[in-house]
Amino acid sequence: MENKKINIFLSTFNFVLCFVGYQLVTTLLLPASSDTTGLASISRTVTVPYRAFTLIISIIVIFLNLRNLSKKIPFPLKLFLFFWLALIVRVFYDTAIRFDVKLEDTSHLWLYIFGICLPAVFSILISYDNIDLDKSLKWIYIGILITLFLTFFSKQYVFVSAEMKREDANIAFDTIGYGHLGTTGVILSLFILSRKKLLLFKKLGIFLFIGISLFSMLRAGSRGPIVALIFVMLFWLFVRGKNILIGTTIVIVSGTLLFISMNSLLNSIGKISPIMEARLKLTIYEGHTSGRDPLYQEAIQAFLDKPILGKQFALFNNQGGFIYSHNIILDTFMGLGIIGGFVIIWLIFMALKMSFNLIKTNDSNYWIALILIQEIVANMFSGAIYYDYLLSALLAFIFVYAADRQKTRIKKGQNRSLIPVL
Q: Whole-angstrom Cα distance, residue 7 to residue 60?
C-alpha cells in the first residue's frame, strides 16, 4: 500500500513537472535582471541540475510502472512512437552520417531528445493510470500562480528597439514561454470557474489571477500566446454548444464581435504592452510574420527537393547552425517527406478529435485537452517537436487516456467512440 502511494505521488509529480517545473524553479532561483554578467553560466547552475533531477524522477516512475508495458497500446500512440523513431533516425542521419552537412554542437539537441522529451513521453504513458489528475490540476495551478505572481513585479526586458521591448520571465525563461504560461493561467482559471462551485472570495481571487495572467501574456510581447488563447476559447465555445449549429453560431458571433472591436481592443492592449499592439497591427493589417516567411519558403523548398523521404530535420546555415521552420507540420514534411507529413497531420487531427469528445462529454479532466490544443497552436507558429517535451507528453497522454475512457464507455453500454476502431 505504501509503495502504491509513493508511485501515485511520483507519477503525479512527474506529470506536474512537465507543465510548470522548469518555469517555477528558474523563477525562484534565477535573477530577473538583464544587467547580469555571465548569464549563460549562471543559468546553467540551475537548469542543468534541474534537468538531471527531472530525468531521475522520470526514470524512477518508469521503473515503478514497468508492469504496465504489457497493456495494449492504442493505434494512435503506436503511430506516434513510430513517428518519434523516424524523427530520431532522420536527425541521426543528418548529424552523424551525411558528408555534405557539418553541424556544430548537436549535443544539446540529443540531450533534449533523450534527456527531456522521450523520458517525459515514456514516463507519462506508462504511469498515466497512477497520475492523480485532481492533484495535478491543483499543483499546476499553484505553480503557475506563484511563477506569474513573482514575475509580475520583475522588469526583465529584452529590447527590440529604443521604443519597444519584450519581456522574459528570467534569464532562462524566454518571452514565448512566458507568454504561453500566462495563456495557460487564463485557460485553467476559466476551467476551474466553469467546473467548481466556489465561495465569492475564491472567485474574486481567480479573477484577479486571470488579470495577472493576461497582463503577463501581453507584456511578454509574443503573438503566439494570444493566438493560442483565442483558438482555445473559440474551440471551447464551439464544442460546449448543445449542437454543432449552436456551437458554430457562437463562434461566428464571437468572431464578429472580436473583429468589430478590434481597434479598441488593440488600443487597450497598447496601454499594457506597446510592442504587442504594434506587432499585432503589423500582423493583422500587413500580414507581417517577423521574418518567418523566408523560413517557410526554405522549408517548403526542402520538401520539394526530396518529397518522398524528406531532406533534413531543420534549416541549416553555412556556419554549422540549424533552426526549425517555426511550424511543426512544415518541419515534418521537410524532414520525413510526404508520409511523415501526413502522419503528423493525422496525429494532430486525432488529438483534436479526442479533445473535442472529452470536452463535449464534459470529462472531469478535459483541462488537459485545452492545454494540448494550446500546445498544438503554439507549435504552428514557434517551436519544434524535438524541443517541446510538453506537446509530446500531452499527445502520449491523450492517446492512452482517450482509449481508457472509450473502454469505460463501452462497459457502460455507450458506443460513442473517442478513438477510431482499427
A: 9
List, in sequence order, every residue forming a beta bridge with 165; answer none if it has no partner.
Answer: 159
Say how many CA atoms lie within 13 Å of 116 toward its Cβ: 24
Cβ proximity of 50 and 22 under 8 Å: yes
Spell out the residues 6+ positions from residue 43 whose beta carbon is closer than 8 angstroms to its own. 26, 30, 171, 172
Question: What is residue 418's predicted lDDT score, i.e. its pLDDT?
Answer: 46
Q: Which of 100-114, 139-153, 233-247, 275-289 is predicted with the least confidence, judged by mean pLDDT? A: 275-289
133: exposed, middle or buried (Cβ count in 10 Å: 0-12, 13-18, 19+)? middle
Separation between Cα atoms, residue 19 and residue 177, nearest integer Å? 11
With residue 84 as reference, give the H or E element that holds it.
Answer: helix 75-92
Cα of first residue to Cα of last residue in the chain, in angstroms, is 37
Q: Which residue has the cell 509580475?
A: 152
Specify which residues 315 forms β-bridges with.
323
| Residue closest to 52 by CA, chosen among 111, 7, 110, 109 | 111
The secondary structure of residue 274, as a DSSP letter, is H
Other beta carbons within 10 angstroms of residue 257's beta carbon come to 10
Amino acid at 119: P
Q: Which three cell numbers stand for residue 161?
A: 528597439
Please give the residue that has the higher pLDDT: either 333 or 216.
333
As given in the structure block, the three cell numbers for residue 203 are 472567485
Instruction: Copy the grid coordinates of residue 188.
Output: 485553467
What cell numbers appear for 209 in the block?
489571477
pTM of the model: 0.89
In the structure grid, which three cell numbers stand for residue 87, read together? 524523427
| Residues in a beta bridge with 170 | 173
Give the integer Cα–Cα distance in Å for 152 and 161. 22
What type of residue is 71? Answer: K
One DSSP character per residue, 375-416 reads: HHHHHHHS--TTT-HHHHHHHHHHHHHHHHHHHHHHHTT---
Given a cut of 80, is residue 88 above it in pLDDT? yes
